Amino acid sequence: MSKDPSKTLSKDELSRLIEMAWEDRTPFEAIEATFGFSESQVIQLMRRELKRGSFDLWRERVSGRVTKHMALRSKLVQRAYCPTQYKNK
């Protein structure tokens, strides 16, 4: 990241971005559409924000995971998140 875009995120936005990155079924493209962070920027942010062990576990889990990349997903999946993920109060 040339200029650190995470500096422009609020604490809540940063928390949500990390949560989306941690979720197995949220693709990097959804994170980019929401926050403007590319996959490589998300990886750098996760490396910086997580403990080393947590980052290593996350990185191992998402590397090559079909659900983290829209191009690798089934064409039948038309959404970036589960319809019940965001509950209306």
Short overview:
By secondary structure, the protein is an all-alpha fold.
Explain what the structure shows.
Helix 3 packs antiparallel against helix 4. This protein has helices at residues 11-22, 28-35, 39-49, 52-62. By secondary structure, it is mainly alpha-helical. The chain has four helices and no strands. The chain is globular, with a radius of gyration of 13 Å. The longest helix is centred in the first third of the chain and has 12 residues, at 11-22.
Q: How do the strands and helices of this protein lay out in sequence?
A:
Blueprint lengths: L10 H12 L5 H8 L3 H11 L2 H11 L27
Helix pairs in contact: 3-4
Largest sheet: none
How many helical elements? 4
The average pLDDT score comes to 79
Shape: globular
User: How many β-strand runs?
Assistant: 0
**From the helix content, strand content and strand pairing, which structural class follows?**
mainly alpha
| SSE run | HHHH
Beginning-to-end CA distance, first to last residue: 37 Å
| Relative strand content | under 5%
**Helix proportion of residues, in percent?**
40-55%
- The low-confidence parts are none
- Whole-angstrom Rg: 13 Å
Provide key terms for this protein.
89 residues; 47% helix; 4 helices; mainly alpha
